[in-house]
Amino acid sequence: MIVVRSMAELREMLSAPRDRGESIGYVPTMGALHEGHLALVRAAKTRDDVVVASVFVNPLQFAPHEDFESYPRDEDRDLGLCEKAEVDIAWLPSAQELFPPGFGLTVAVPRLSSVLCGRSRPTHFAGVTTEMAKILIQLAPTAVYLGEKDFQQLVVMRALVRDLGLPLEVRGVPTVREPDGLALSSRNAYLTIAERPSAAALFRILSELVAALRAEPDSVAAILDEGRRELVRAGVARIDYLELVDSETLEPVRIAIRSNRLVAAVWVGNTRLIDNLEI
C-alpha cells in the first residue's frame, strides 16, 4: 500500500494506471474506520483495478457546535486497516491543501440537502458536496463508493455527480450492522453501555415498521406515529425525524410502495444516530 498526502502525489501515482486504461475506485472516509468502511473497500476491489481510500475529517461539514474537535481520529490504526484490506493507495489530505486561505467556493444541492438531516444540520451537506466536488473533479475516479447507512448523503451525491456531468458512477453499498442490529458508525463510540439497548432498538423498530407498511401501505401516518411512540418507549431521548420518503426525491409519501425508504434520525443520550430501511 502506498500512502500519499497531497493531490499532486495522488495524481502522479494514478497516471500509470490511467495510461493502462485501468479503473479507479474511490472510497472517501473520515477515518475511525470500522467494518462498514472496509465493506466499501471490498466492493471497490471487486469492480475496480485500483482502489484509493481517503482519510480526512472535513471541517466544512461540521457546524461550530458539533463534534469536529472530538471526532475520533487514529491515523496509525486507520492505515493498518487500509493495508489489511488491500487498499492500493491511502490518501491523507490536509485541510490546508483542500481549503487554502481565501477558499470561498460552495457547491450545494439545495433541494435534497434542506430536508431530513438538513433541517437540523443546515450547513452539513453543502460542506460534503463542496469537498466531494473538488476531489472528484481533480481525482476523476471511475466510481465512488458510499454506504447506504447515510442514505440522504448517497442521494445528494448522485444528484451532484449527475448535475455536474461528471463521468463516474456513485455506487451504494449496503449498511453493515452490529450483531444487535445497530448500524455501524464511528460515532457509536460515544454510546455508553447503558445506552446501547436504546440504540439497538432503532433497527428493531424500523424493521417492525417496514413489515407494517408492507402489510398496510395506506396507513403510513398512523404507522409512523406508532413508531415514534415506540422509539420514546425504547429510551430514545429525541427524534429528529421518522419519515417514509421517495428514494430519489426524498419527498414524504402517503402511500407506501416498494423502493420507498423509511428514514430516521434520533438521539440516544448525547449521540445522534441515523438509519434507514427500504420498504
TrEMBL record:
A biological process (GO) of this protein is: pantothenate biosynthetic process
Which parts of the sequence bind beta-alanine?
Q61
UniProt pathway: Cofactor biosynthesis; (R)-pantothenate biosynthesis; (R)-pantothenate from (R)-pantoate and beta-alanine: step 1/1
- Where is the protein situated, by its record's location annotation? Cytoplasm
Q: Which residues form the signal peptide?
A: none
Q: Report residues binding (R)-pantoate.
A: Q61, Q153
> Which GO terms label this protein's molecular function in UniProt?
ATP binding; pantoate-beta-alanine ligase activity
Catalytic residues at H37
Q: Which PANTHER family match?
A: CYTIDYLATE KINASE/PANTOATE-BETA-ALANINE LIGASE, PANTOATE--BETA-ALANINE LIGASE
Q: Which GO terms describe its cellular component?
A: cytosol
Protein task: Catalyzes the condensation of pantoate with beta-alanine in an ATP-dependent reaction via a pantoyl-adenylate intermediate.
Quote the subunit structure annotation: Homodimer.
Spell out the reaction equation it catalyses: (R)-pantoate + beta-alanine + ATP = (R)-pantothenate + AMP + diphosphate + H(+)
Which InterPro entries does the record cross-reference, listed alphabetically?
Pantoate_ligase, Pantoate_ligase_C, Rossmann-like_a/b/a_fold
Where along this sequence does the record place binding of ATP? 30-37, 147-150, 176, 184-187
Q: Which HAMAP family match?
A: PanC (MF_00158)
Query: Might you give the EC number(s) for this enzyme?
Result: 6.3.2.1
The note filed under miscellaneous reads:
The reaction proceeds by a bi uni uni bi ping pong mechanism.
Keywords of the record? ATP-binding, Cytoplasm, Ligase, Nucleotide-binding, Pantothenate biosynthesis
The record's family statement is: Belongs to the pantothenate synthetase family.
Q: What is this protein called?
A: Pantothenate synthetase
- In its UniProt entry, the species of origin is given as Nocardia pseudobrasiliensis
